[in-house]
Structure formats: structure tokens, C-alpha cells
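task queued by scheduler; priority normal; single chain, no ligands, no partner chains; default sampling; output format set to C-alpha cells
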Amino acid sequence: MSRPVIGYALVVTAAVIFGVNAGVSRVPVQAGLGIDSYTAFRLTGAALTFWLLAALVDRTAFRVPRGRAFVLVVALGIAGVLGAQATYNVTVNRLPLGVALLLEYLAPAIVVLWVRFVRREPVHPRLYPAIVVSLVGLALVGQVWRGLTLDGIGVLVGLLSAACLASYFLLGEALTAHEGATSSPLQTVVWSFGIAAVAVNLYEPFWTAFDVLGQDTALLGRFEDVTVPGWLPMAYIVLLGTVAPFFLYLLAMQFVPSTRASVVAMLEPVVALVVGWLWFTEVLSTAQTIGVVVVLTGVVVAQSARLVRGENVPAAP
């Protein structure tokens, strides 16, 4: 199997898991878990899981990054991990979901423009139309024209959420896969999630979630009659909705550059839409169905572009 195929497979897997997590996350929130408590528990649980993995698999991941790598991993923890979570939570509470997702997934455009004009590295020209096509598809998926009211603060925070998401790809790549990288993917998540967990607990301690997670809760939608302990869906959110996809994205950038990985990651809201249809019996409109096809088209265009000479592709580890 070729290296790009492995990379794309990792990104698609991460995007699908993230999309499913959008549905699972409704369960504890609908049960009464506050967004701040949810975020604190999610990031703390993920950090503890990464630390456990490092203790079992590779204890060198606990080594403190040095010099430039330390600065980058702190920025990744604050902006790419905690910042992405916090800004997204604010955006979806101030804007229609479709608009919030559209703003957040301006991230691939930021990544491509950053690589091309700041790093001054070649970018395949086919990526530009791929991003435009995918964004048009997301606009259709989110039906951004329905009940559209633009909250100024919401739009600004939405743009910030795109920058934070882009920073996860760019900083993660700089730490683990770019020329001169000195950190492993495991070391990167151990420290970035650790920093994010400490920061969020200064604001909202993770144990504030215990009361809600200790109660039974319904699974909603088609499974409204099914009741499970509140900690069970939260365990999924931590392990499969956070640990797995974030780590897979970093692994993927060992095989494909951030410019491509970030575009393929736009599958996430499409998967979330399908989950809403299958699980929560939400009706898919014709526009949304077309939007799904358009997003998939953009993703295919992005991954089908051959690498241009000199385009950043990490060397084999």
C-alpha cells in the first residue's frame, strides 16, 4: 500500500470517528452536562489516556520538548486543542450550526494559503478548487440560508475556530513531520493535551461532570427507550471521539502533507449529517443530499492530485 493511501485512510477514519462523535456528544449534553464541564472532562480524559499509552508503549514520549519544539507544543495545546474546542462551542451557540461548520472548515483554506505564502512551499493547484467545491458542499449540507442571522461575535469566534483548527494541522505537522521535526506523534499529543487539560481545569474542573455522568441517561433518537450509565457515552467521547481521531490526524501527516489532510477532514460534518439522519431521524433535504455529493467530490479532487515537485511530503520514518 502506498504512503499517500495510508495517509488518506488515516484521515478518513479520523473524520468518520469525529462525525459519529458529533452524535454521541448529544447524549451527555442533553442529559444536563454543561458545555464547560463536558470540555474539561473530555480533554482531561484524553490527556490521561495519552499518558497511560505513553507509560505502556513509549516512555520517551514524556521527555520535555526542547527549544522551538516546546514553544510549538504549547501553542498546539492552547490553540489547536483547547482553542479549537472552546471556539467551536461558542460559535455553535451563537450561530446556526450550518454557518458555524462552514466557518470552522475555512481551516483547509488557511492551511493551504499558509503553506504557499508563509512557508513558500509548492501546493498543487488542484487543491484550490477542491477547497472551494467542498465549502460549497458544506454550505448546502448546513443549509446556511435558512434562518440566517449573523451574530458579529459569533462570526469572529467562528473565524477564530477555523484558525485554531488550521493550527492543529500546521503545528502538528511542524512538530512531527515537517523538515527538522524532532517530536513523535505520541510525544506531541502527550504534551499538547496535557497542557490543554491543565489550562481548562483552571477554568472548569473536570470533576464538575461527575454528578451528571453518575446518572442513567437515554440514548435519544431511535434509541430513546435505551438507558445507559452516563459515563458510558462519555467514555466513547474520550477514547474514540477524541484520543483516536486526534492521534490519527498526526499519524496521517507522516504520509500526506497538512494541505491535503485538512481538505479530506472536511468529511467530518458530512458524516455528522448522516448520523443525524440514521440515529436522530433528522430529515435530509434535497439540498443537503446534493451537498454531501459536492463535498465528496471536493475531497476526491484533493486526494487525486499528484504531488508537485518539492511539495512537502514527510520522509519515511
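post-processing summary
- Residues 32 and 252 are 35 Å apart (CA to CA).
- The longest helix spans residues 68-94.
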